[in-house]
Specification:
The chain folds into three domains: about 220 residues, Rossmann fold, CATH 3.40.50; about 80 residues, Tyrosyl-Transfer RNA Synthetase, CATH 1.10.240; about 80 residues, Structural Genomics Hypothetical 15.5 Kd Protein In mrcA-pckA Intergenic Region, Chain A (Roll), CATH 3.10.290.10. Helix content is about 45%, strand content about 15%. The protein is built from 19 helices and 13 strands. α12 crosses α16, α13 packs antiparallel against α14 and α18 crosses α19. It is elongated, with a radius of gyration of 26 Å.
Length: about 425
């Protein structure tokens, strides 16, 4: 049984979003009593958000769907300073034109998930108040509520100093600006809640304490856990870089494929975090085992793509993937490597073939792949490291399909 009475917090906890809450009982009472306003900030550092931002976006979506009032705060002001959280060096400072262009791209990212145009989610730019601040009054009225002693204890500052990496005075001001954002949103929009990743806990607490010292209403904060794959890798990157949400940065088919390649152990968790499927349906999909887990991965890929790119793009990506990887003739989409027929006739082995196909860097690596059961020839497991690959192993079309694991396949074509 859930510890929360409010639909919003109950749903967040059930789906795995909750890491820390500043005052769980107080926030639950407030959310159960009626609509509340909550926000998350997105600095304008690129012209698209990426899946590293997706947990935050889904938080706002659940807030919106529960009948509350989300604010997506774009940092037209704070981007001019740069958030030092999780950074080993200062961010590259952008000019006003670049920030405006990035803000437009972020609006497209958010608009796919949230009702920005319809007004159920409000998009606000903190440049509205930060650009108008006068420095001395800000230091006198806001800066006096912060001690350098305490600011030095926050991870964003402490870690940079421990590594003897420079932290500019400009970046040092970021936490004051973010705390001021919360108080300003509370004043302008009766915003009572800030949400964010676990690395934002200190900034959120700063805003709550500042508002209290300024005589405002009690504010609340919720943070999410760091999302990693079961392998331990941080969610949000692939071997090719960031997984962008905007179609002009990453094709919807490639976005679909990213989710389709989710590790088996992560499928249920990612379905809860990154789709809106009912929890009962997710439990059914999570229970699938063996080869059937691939069906759950396809559902994850399609539903995640549906949120980011719409129904048509999701169905098109799903159908294209099926055509490439599942239907007859699917191998037409696989990379090909030519092998001379004379070579096939003179002691060419499966180990040689794996290296030639680029599925192993060395013969030693190829042998280890075979010993581990990860190598296949024409979809049959290779058990003999010395097995030849000659004309007899070619199929009728003059090809042989080599596989390393479940996802890496190459066609050898005799020529």
């Amino acid at each position: 049984m859930s510890r929360f009475r409010s639909e919003f917090l109950h749903n967040l906890e059930a789906r795995g979003f909750v890491h820390q809450i500043t005052d769980p009982e107080g926030l639950d009472r407030l959310a159960a009593a009626g609509p509340i306003t909550g926000y998350i900030g997105f600095d304008c550092t690129a012209d698209s958000l990426h899946i590293g931002n997706l947990v935050s976006i889904m938080l706002l979506r659940h807030l919106q769907d529960a009948g509350h009032r989300p604010i997506a705060l774009v940092g037209g002001g704070t981007t001019k300073v740069g958030d030092p959280s999780g950074r080993d060096e200062a961010r590259r400072l952008l000019d006003d034109d670049a920030i405006e262009a990035n803000k437009a791209g972020i609006r497209r990212s958010l608009g796919a998930f949230l009702d920005v145009e319809g007004g159920r989610t409000r998009m606000v730019d903190n440049a509205e108040w930060l650009d108008e601040l006068r420095y001395v009054p800000f230091l006198r009225d806001i800066g006096r509520h912060f001690t350098v002693n305490r600011m030095l204890t926050f991870d964003s500052v402490r870690l940079r100093l421990e590594r003897e990496q420079p932290l500019t005075f400009l970046e040092f001001n970021y936490m004051l600006m973010q705390a001021y954002d919360f108080t300003e949103l509370a004043r302008r929009y009766d915003c009572r809640l800030q949400l964010g990743g676990s690395d934002q806990w200190g900034n959120i607490v700063n805003g709550i304490e500042l508002n209290r010292r300024l005589g405002g209403d009690e504010l609340y904060g919720v943070t999410t856990p760091l999302i990693t794959r079961s392998s331990g890798e941080k969610m949000g990157k692939s071997v090719h870089g960031a997984i962008w949400l905007n179609a002009d940065r990453l094709d919807p088919f490639d976005y679909w494929q990213f989710w389709r390649n989710t590790e088996d152990a992560d499928v249920g968790r990612f379905l809860r975090l990154f789709t809106l499927l009912p929890l009962a349906e997710i439990a059914r999909l999570e229970a699938l085992d063996g080869v059937e887990v691939n069906e759950a991965k396809k559902v994850l890929a399609t539903e995640a793509t549906r949120l980011a790119h719409g129904d048509a793009a999701a169905e098109e990506a799903r159908a294209a993937a099926a055509a490439v990887f599942e239907q007859a003739g699917a191998e037409a989409g696989l990379p090909e490597v030519a092998v001379d027929r004379d070579l096939l006739a003179h002691g060419f082995t499966v180990v040689d073939a794996l290296v030639r196909a680029g599925l192993a860097k060395t013969k030693g690596e190829a042998r280890r792949l075979i010993r581990g059961g990860g190598a296949k020839l024409n979809d049959a497991r290779i058990d003999d490291e010395l097995a030849p690959l000659g004309e007899g192993e070619l199929r009728g079309d003059g090809t042989a399909k080599l596989s390393a694991g479940k996802k890496r396949h190459v066609l050898l074509r005799a020529g």
